[in-house]
Amino acid sequence: MRVYFDILHLYYLPQYLPVKNALEAKNIECIFILYQQEHLNNTLENYVKNHNLNYVWVNDRKDAKKIYLEAKPEWIIFGNATDDLNEIHCFSKTALLQHGIGPKACYYDVSYSPIMYRFVEGKHRLERLQKIFPKKIFIDTGYAKLDPIINNTETKITLESLALDPTKKTILYAPTFYPSSIECLPQNFPDLFKEYNIIIKPHFFSLIKSKYKSQKEKLINWSRYANVYACDVDDVSILPFMQLASLMISDASSTLFEFTALNKPAIWCDFYKLRWSYRGIFKFRLNKRLDTDLSYFGKVAARVTNIKELIENTKLHLNEPQLNEVNRLEMSEHLTGKVDGKCSERIAEFIVGECA
């Protein structure tokens, strides 16, 4: 039995590795389809080699489809919407394992794709998806990406290895690329938090796409501060940094749901740099991009609207991490599902069971 993983983007990989491990424990062969990506091919290849993955390079969706039709694997796992599956479905089952659990509308919209099954996270997501797509099959498995942290199998790093001070508490700043808080934070942002270590883990697009050049410039500036470790594209997974951090600062990124599911405090920066085409009379475009699930950020994290509130709330929640614990745990079960280290095992069992 073979399962193919369609890796359209590098940042899908940490979500799929726990599932790959669970499948291989059942003697199932796993193959990763990697798409050629400018500036990222070396990073991709190094990452898959370090994790001993069986992989094949393709140029585009057309190449990938050709491989699927020739190989006829029992399963293909996709991380995003894809069309033109009629021929593939003659030989293979398909499933969607979404690469994130964020508040963007695309989380739900991707299920318009003709993929056969979808693994989802928690009762809230399951009920919403089933209501929108009553004829589709959704399986609540929980969020597999967090399994290595829960099971204590994730690669560990130290603050010393990042040239940070082990006597200080550590903040993880994990902004998304759009809409992002990066441009709204001051040039001396690290200096305002000099009593803490700051690990900055931006979205890959902030580092590689020319339209986010101003974000990259600010990230480079922040990286020069002694209390900062700024991740680059080779830091593929956020999980090792989540383990080190006592608190997360984020904006419209799904990593905020991931971090708080570990019962750690987070700060939600509800202020963003918006393009002119998303402001004023065009604000409907932002509303269309962001789903109503964004409102749940305020239940799992402390909401701030400016840098002064950010400083105050960071100090407060680092000193009293239990403040929002009840809401955090309740909402995490609601939005992320079971956080028991067995999510990838449930996915593997379903895949095997459907082929029995």
Automatic annotation (TrEMBL):
Q: What is this protein called?
A: CDP-glycerol--poly(Glycerophosphate) glycerophosphotransferase
One GO location term (cellular component): membrane
What SUPFAM superfamilies does this protein map onto? UDP-Glycosyltransferase/glycogen phosphorylase
Which keywords label this protein? Answer: Transferase
One molecular function GO term is: CDP-glycerol glycerophosphotransferase activity
One family from Pfam that matches here is Glyphos_transf
Q: Which organism is it from?
A: Cognaticolwellia beringensis
